[in-house]
Amino acid sequence: NSSFSPDEWFPSIALDGATPGFVNSVTPATDDLSLDSVAATPETGSSETEFTISCWFSNVGLNDIPSASLIMYDEDEGSEQLLAKETLRPINAGTIDTMDIKIGPLKSGFHRIVTALKWETDVNPLNDSLFITLKVSFEEGALLLSEFMAIPLDIETGNNSISEYVEVYNPGLDDMPLKGWSLCDENIGKPAQNMEKKTVSAQGYFVFAADSTIFNFTGVYPENTCVINSFPSLNNVEDCVVLKDPTGKTIDSLRYNSDWLITNNTSMERVFYTNPNFQNNWRLSASPDGGTPGRVNSVAISKEWKKPGIKVEPNPFSPNGDGFDDEVAILFKLPFPSAMVTVEIYDLMGRLIFQPAKNLSLSSEGAIYWDGSSKHGDKARIGMYVVRCSATDTMSDKTVGYVTTLVLAR
Questions:
Q1: What is the CA angle 329-335-340, rounded to 5?
Q2: What are the pLDDT digits (tens) for 208-223?
C-alpha cells in the first residue's frame, strides 16, 4: 500500500513508545488470537448461584485459527483451581466469536476468575487473558459479633489509652477471609470496610478498631486486628452494630439502648454464641482490663460443669512453702453471667479464718486462691475448713450460696 496514505500509519502501541530495529507494533501478527472482553452474570451471588461468564475474542492475526482452547480458573492467593476448559470453533482471520461458560456454585468470599486463550502458535501473549472478580455471600451467622467497646477512656496518649472496637468470633471449623467485610452503626452511611488480606482463625477472634491504641490490650496483635480509619463511632447510650460480608449482606447485628447500662472503659461481651443478641445475652466485661479483645470473653459460660456449685483443688493442700500444693483453688460456677463474689474460709467452730475474696466483680466461673493465710496469725492450723461462696447477680440482685469443705495439711 502507498506509504503516503494517512490511513496506513498509526501511533505506536509498544510499551516503550517505539520499535526501532524491530517489527512495528501496529503491524498485524501472523498468528494472534485476542481475548477482547469478559463479563459475568450475575457479578454477586450466594453459595448456590451458578454464574455465566461471557467471553468475546477475535482473530487479529493474518492467518486463520483452526483450533484453540479457552481455559478458566479461580485464582486464590497464588493457587489456581481449574473451572473450565473448552475448545474453540475455527476462527478466520479478522473475525470475532463469543462463548458462554457456566461456573459454580462457588464458596463464599471473593473470587478472582481468570480467563485465558491457548493457541500454540500465538505470537502475542499480552492480549490472551483477562480477569473479573465475583463476590459470593456468606450465610447468616458465619461470623458473630462477640464484643464491643462503646465508651473508651478519655485519654488520647499514654499506655492507658484504648480505642473503640468491635470483636467478631468465627464459630466455624475453617479460617475465614476478612477482606471486604465491613461494619456500620445506626447512622448507616458508607460502611467502614476492611480491605486488608487478613483472616480470622476457626473458632477464633478478630478485632476491628478505631485506632492503634487497641494494641495496649493484652492479646491484641497485628495478625488478629485491623485498624479502620473510618470506624463507625458508637454512641454511648443507644446505637446498633451491623456486620456485613463483602456483598453487603448483613451477617450479624445487635441494637443496644440505655437499659444495657453501657459503662465507661468497660466493654460489652456476648455470653452465648448460640443465643440471639438480646440484652440478657450481653454483659459488662468482668476483666480487670475492661475488655478482652482478641481473647475468650470474660463472661462466657463454659459447659464443662453440668450444674452450678463450687469445688476445691487440690484437696488436701499443704501451704508449707515447698512449691507443691501450696495453694488451693476454689473453683466456682454460677447461674449468672457475672456477679459480685465473696469467698470465706471458716473453721469447724464457725469462726471466720480468712476472706480470699470480698465483693469481687467476676464472671460466671473462675477460681479464687487461698494460700492458708489466717486473720488470726501467719498461717491457719492443720485441719478441716468450711468454704463458703456467695454471689449476687450484677444485673438482678439475685443471690446464691455454696458450701464445701477442704483439708489443710503440712
A1: 65
A2: 998 888 998 888 999 9
Residue 13 pLDDT more than 70? no
What does the block give as the cell for 364?
Answer: 460466671
Q: In terms of C-beta density within 10 A (0-12 exposed, 13-18 middle, 19 or more buried), how is residue 129 classed?
A: middle
* Res 149: pLDDT: 94
294-298 CB contacts, 8 Å cutoff, 24+ apart: 294/167, 294/205, 294/206, 294/207, 294/217, 294/219, 294/220, 294/221, 294/224, 294/225, 295/205, 295/218, 295/219, 296/205, 297/146, 297/147, 297/269, 297/270, 297/271, 298/269, 298/338, 298/363
Question: Cα separation of 182 and 244, whole Å?
Answer: 5
Is the CB of residue 82 less than 8 Å from the CB of residue 70? no
Among residues 377, 388, 381, 149, the alpha carbon closest in space to that of 267 is found at: 149
At 16, the pLDDT band (50, 70, 90 cuts) reads confident
SS3 298: coil
The 8-class DSSP code of residue 4 comes to: T
**Nine-digit cell at 33?**
488470537
Tell me the average pLDDT across 167-188.
89
Contact 34, 58 (CB under 8 A): yes
Q: For residue 226, which amino acid is it?
A: C
Please, where are the H alpha helices in 66-212? Answer: none
Report the distance separating Cα 369 and Cα 372, nearest Å: 9
Burial of 145 (0-12, 13-18, 19+ CB in 10 A): buried
Give yes or no for residue 161 having a pLDDT over 90: no
Q: Which three cell numbers stand for residue 81?
A: 483451581
The helix (run of H) or strand (run of E) holding residue 177 is strand 176-177
- CB–CB of 357/368 below 8 Å? yes
How many alpha carbons fall within 13 Å on the CB side of residue 347? 13
